[in-house]
Amino acid sequence: MLSQPPASRAGDDAIRDAIRRVWGFSSLRPLQAEAIRAGIEGRDALVVLPTGGGKSLCYQVPPLITERTDVVISPLIALMKDQVDALRANGYPAVALHSGMSDGERVAAEKEIAAGRTRLVFVAPERVLSGRFLRLINPLGVRAFAIDEAHCISHWGHDFRPEYRWLARLRSTFPDASLHAYTATATPQVRQDIVDQLQLREPHVLVGSFDRPNLTYRVRAKLEARPQIIDALRRHAGQAAIVYCISRRETESLADALREAKFKAACYHAGLNPDQRRRTQEDFANERIDVVCATVAFGMGVDRSDVRCVIHAAMPKSIEHYQQEAGRAGRDGLEAECLLLFSPADALRWESLLARSLEEQEDGAPEWLDAQHKLLREMRGYANAVRCRHRMLVEHFGQRFDSESCGACDVCLGEVEELSDANTVAQKVLSCVARTRESFGIGHVVDVLRGARNDRVQALRHHELSTYGLLKHFEKKSLTDIVYQLVEQDLLTRDGDELPVLRLNPASWEVMRGERDVRLRKPVGGVAKRSKGDAASWEGVSEGLFEALRGLRRQIADEAGVPPYVIFSDATLRDMARQKPKSPGAFLNVYGVGETKRRKFGAAFIEAIKAFEDRGARIVPE
Length: 622
Ligand code: ADP
Ligand code: ZN
Known about the structure:
Elements: H1 6-23, H2 32-41, E1 45-48, H3 55-66, E2 70-73, H4 77-89, E3 94-97, H5 103-114, E4 120-123, H6 131-137, E5 144-147, H7 170-173, E6 178-183, H8 188-197, E7 204-207, E8 215-221, H9 225-234, E9 240-244, H10 248-260, E10 265-268, H11 274-285, E11 291-294, E12 307-312, H12 319-326, E13 336-342, H13 344-360, H14 366-384, H15 389-396, H16 422-435, H17 442-449, H18 455-459, H19 476-488, E14 493-495, E15 501-503, H20 506-512, H21 532-538, H22 543-560, H23 564-567, H24 570-579, H25 584-588, H26 595-619
Parallel strand pairs: 1-6, 1-7, 2-4, 2-5, 3-4, 5-6, 8-13, 9-11, 9-12, 10-11, 12-13
Antiparallel strand pairs: 14-15
Helix pairs in contact: 1-3, 2-3, 13-14, 16-17, 16-20, 17-19, 22-24, 22-26
């Protein structure tokens, strides 16, 4: 509909007037006008706006203008209370009914509702269809229901709540009322599920943009979480920050460590008593503390819009969770940073937590577990990809991302350094898994590759393997990170519950046969420092070429029946791999090459260098 009837334009004036008068807002945000109009006109709607997009206003305005009593269904008591408090502070007549109220409070609230002066009644999904509530609101002729966090109705979502399934009966119980579903995080599948479950009638579907251009996203492999977290927080010293952890214990020990590092920090989780929780929330809201180390229990009720940094000390279990939690940064529209510290061990932890929670569910559905695993895989994919983060997030929510580079993520900012020679390194790791007969875990494979001289390696005689010590120039942590990257990209399989072992899969063989290119992030921690002379000699050396030259040296040595070092020393090969000479004159400049050796071997090595470079040129995409 392009032109609006005059009545509707008059409605727009009323809306503008209300938001100025009650909330002090001067304009509406994208899609708010459309959502509010659907509310006023009693047309079903599905409104999808990112966290901070301003969904609440969309259901708060219509009853004020139409002088109705509308009902809001909300999943958490804390969420209801905060909203009701905020509304009442603006002189807006809102009431919540929940299990945390005393009898006296409930009776008073019910009286207020019955008098018809209340514009919004907040209620939990399990209560809205109870006899008592129906008796209370039937005389009021309620005409509109807003369902907040509507994705909770879907099995496919990240936050399924069984009690939301009851809302499927809203339509038949209130055939004349309109239903308005609100969510921040719906993929197309979840969106359809919401429409189906609630039996929305030709809903007005309003989907906002999911990009948050003011947020800078970064993903870092988690090697030493503490220093990494402290480092990031120092970039935002004195500003509001949230650090999300998986376990309650972690929030506590991290908050301790941060206080020791002179941050004003506190922890927050559902295991604290209500007083402690309230104190932390208030201290944060009032800027007495800067950093909250929290489980995901923290956030829903926090309305501090100037959070400058959200750190995930562990990977969340879905992109939806990530978007929602990271989305708490920069709600004021100013720039903020979202850092995800990621370790594949987090994914394994989630897998076991999911398995356990399936056991605890009464009607534990295997398809629920499958859906959760899919969400987890997507999250891991996000963490491991070397692709623009803004683009990945936006595309995940079914939207297009048009610009080439976002200028606000680690990938586009060029902070994600790729490992040169990823193919060679990957091949070495995979060969080592093959040589150790696919029967060992990451730790041992890393030990063998690094040439560790421990008892286990000796007892298994793994120091005699051809892959022993092949990657000794990597630090243990870096190499471990690389192996995990291969696992994450499904180029290597890690299975077994108690003591997982590394196994090869078809993709591993493709890599080993050189049929598949590998891209790896440079591991945090980098490459081990070598002794002085040695370190200098690796500067600028292409390791892949070095390997190729070593192969040629071995071949020549075999043919001549002499040890390889007689042909050229390693130092010479490295210098050759650095200088990449392509003419006899240039070959002479290589360290350790005299006239005789140039005459004898120059042509063969120059040819090998050219061949290597040609191979490299061919794999560069057009
Ligand atoms: P959501 O529920 O979508 O996460 P909220 O409804 O909590 O978002 O709104 C986020 C913040 O934006 C709140 O502080 C709210 O007061 C503010 N807000 C909402 N709409 C507007 C507007 N039109 N103008 C200014 N501020 C707004
Ligand atoms: Zn980007």
